[in-house]
Design goal:
This protein folds into 2 domains: about 40 residues; about 80 residues, Alpha-Beta Plaits (2-Layer Sandwich), CATH 3.30.70. A hairpin with a 2-residue loop joins strand 5 and strand 6. The protein is built from 5 helices and 6 strands, in the order H-H-H-E-H-E-E-H-E-E-E. The chain is an alpha+beta fold. The longest helix has 13 residues.
Length: about 160
């Protein structure tokens, strides 16, 4: 099953027929395993990485570090759930270090993100502080280079 997951992680458009050929399995076995992985929520979603700038869409994004007071019996889970339920929150991680949660937020403008932080995130009970880092340019996302065509990538000469 690991091989199927690795193939789908690299290319969500890979068909069961293509995967079966790559792994020397029957197409039916691949379909059955994918179905099991979807039902068990091991495969959560199929995703397309889009370079919105090339699509002509301006978007603002930010990484927000959030310091929170953990709650008795639930730790950080309760406040994390309140945050990840906001549609602006694309990604929420519990992290080590000075801050407890890392939140990726996307909006149409920086002002939209600022409004989210000041009106929705910071006032939440248990939030003790935030630091917002606006993303200025995306070079690579989910392992995919966004700004240069593969043919443009030039290797540096190797010298010994």
């Amino acid at each position: 099953m690991r091989e199927i997951l690795e193939i789908l992680e690299k290319d969500a458009r890979a068909t069961p027929k293509e995967i079966a050929r790559m792994l020397d399995m029957s197409e039916e076995d691949v379909r059955r395993k994918i179905d099991e992985l979807e039902k068990s929520k091991t495969i959560v979603k199929y995703k397309t990485v889009i370079n919105w700038e090339r699509a002509g869409e301006e978007r603002a994004a930010a990484l927000i570090e959030v310091k929170v007071a953990p709650q008795r019996d639930v730790g950080f889970d309760s406040i994390a759930e309140r945050i990840y339920r906001f549609p602006e929150a694309r990604t929420v991680y519990l992290v080590s270090g000075t801050y407890d949660l890392q939140v990726e937020v996307v909006g149409k403008t920086m002002r939209d993100i600022s409004r989210f932080v000041t009106e929705k995130l910071a006032p939440l009970e248990g939030v003790q502080g935030t630091v917002t880092h606006f993303l200025l340019k995306r070079y690579k996302e989910d392992g995919d280079i966004l700004e240069v065509d593969e043919q443009e990538v030039k290797r540096l000469p190797l010298s010994l």
